Amino acid sequence: MSLCKEQLVHEEKQEAVLSTLGDTGKKSRAVCGVCSRTYRDPKILPCLHTFCADCIRQLEPFSVRRVNGERRSPEDDMQGRNSGSTILCPECDSEVDLPPSGVDGLTIDHLALDEVFAETLLVDCRVLCDLCSESDAGKRCEVCCVNLCDFCSQAHRRQKRTTSHSIQSLQELKCQGRLTRPVLCSLHPGQELRLFCESCDFTVCLECAATFHRDHHCSSAHEVISHHGDRIRDLVVRSLRPRLVRLEDSLRRVDTSQEMLQTRTDTLAGEIRAFARSYASAVEAHCCSLLRSLEDLRLQHRNQLHLQKAQQQQALSDVRGGVDFAERLLTCGSDAEILSAKGVTMRRLMNLVESGFDPHPTTVAHDNANSICFLPQESAGEVQGFPVVGVIHAKTVDPSKCTIQGEGVEGGREGQRGEFTLVCRDSSGEQMGQGGDPVLVSIGGCSVEAAVVDKGDGSYGVSYTPAEAGLYSVWVCVKAQDVKGSPFVLNVKRKFRCHRGIFHCCSFCSSGGTKEARCGCTGTMPGGFQGCGHGHTGHPGKPHWSCCGSVVEASECILHNLGSVSPRGHLRTVEL
To answer: How far is Cα 538 from Cα 532, in angstroms, rounded to an integer?
Structure first.
């Protein structure tokens, strides 16, 4: 019991020393990755990561398996009875299964214990004896793992149960490149594991081989190490080492790609910022240009309004002067005065009437203002090498310059859709670049419904479907004014009459000489033939339709347009 207590005291000293080493920033192999303290009873998980046994017990089970048909609760696992459970490795997050015996059934990591011993020797400058705790230790028992002074070392050798233990100098151990300790049996203290049971695949001591593994095939560890070591070495060298190289190379490529990606994104971010600055500069320049154009239009329209105002004021003054003089002459003048001033008064009044300056009610000042508009979506070309949008539109539609075009203007068919196009133009005759103008289309006093579609480019599509044939008046107005050519007459004809016969040279040829075959022409043949034939009486002398006798192939059947036809004209050619 005193020996165990001394070992615990020594482990606490080791922990204090290694914690000081950890503060320096150096990663130690003798420190547990969970508790960050010196390994105590280190166990190897199936994923080959090592942690303290108590640290593994404190891990929360990821799942619980049934053991011997009984499902164990997480509370049992947390209390150290986590047999048959699955946990997550704190290092690699792998799901690892614990053996049925729990954490105690995991393999002890003796390499980690060697690292603890080596770290202690390298860090400790002065090591006290673990038995007397008074003198400096100069030797160490590899079996008991205690540091001994010279006196305690001699006493250790004299004891019967420790006389065979291997004792080495601490100075020699420090000079060794790799420190190893004998692996002792957990069931028989002091007995080294020197045999390997092939049946159980387990290392045993001599006493275990003589008792628990009496009937098993046990061999010396030195005899089987080459076989099992070669198997491990073969897996590492042939399979895992090349894969490790490939993974490292792939990881380097990933790191390189990440660096290239970061460099590329940084470069593109700079280009985007430069583009944004240049584009913002172009937009600002375009904005200034639009504002200048708007100001020029304002000045231009202001000057036009000033001129229009001056003209109207002068016309108003002239008309008012003429009206006032004429009314005063008629009201206050005598007959002789009226007749004597009649000539000059009539000439002035006639000049005022014929002057032609009579503004239309829709031609008012605000039309000039409404003619200016901003089109934000229309392309404005390029500014400083960048395409920009947004233009100022200053055109106003002139109904007298608008035109109507399309087949639907010339005529239509009963029950068929007709179409024509209205093209709005300004006073100079150029097509308006935008839509939105008030367009009204009336056909036959609204007896035929017309649909108007704004195409957005200054043109308007008009469609209609007349129900009856006849002549219709069509009014097309823009801004409540008739456009050029409005109103016009729309001639709607009856439905197209398709031919019900065939286009042939004669009924004799088309029917293969059948006497019953008839034709819509007036041709006859002797010998009992009821149709026409080449060179006989009434034959038109050219190919014609058998239903109506029309000699035009691409034509409308005239049978339905005849007021009176002979019974012969109604007959169709006999089908072959």
So the answer is: 8
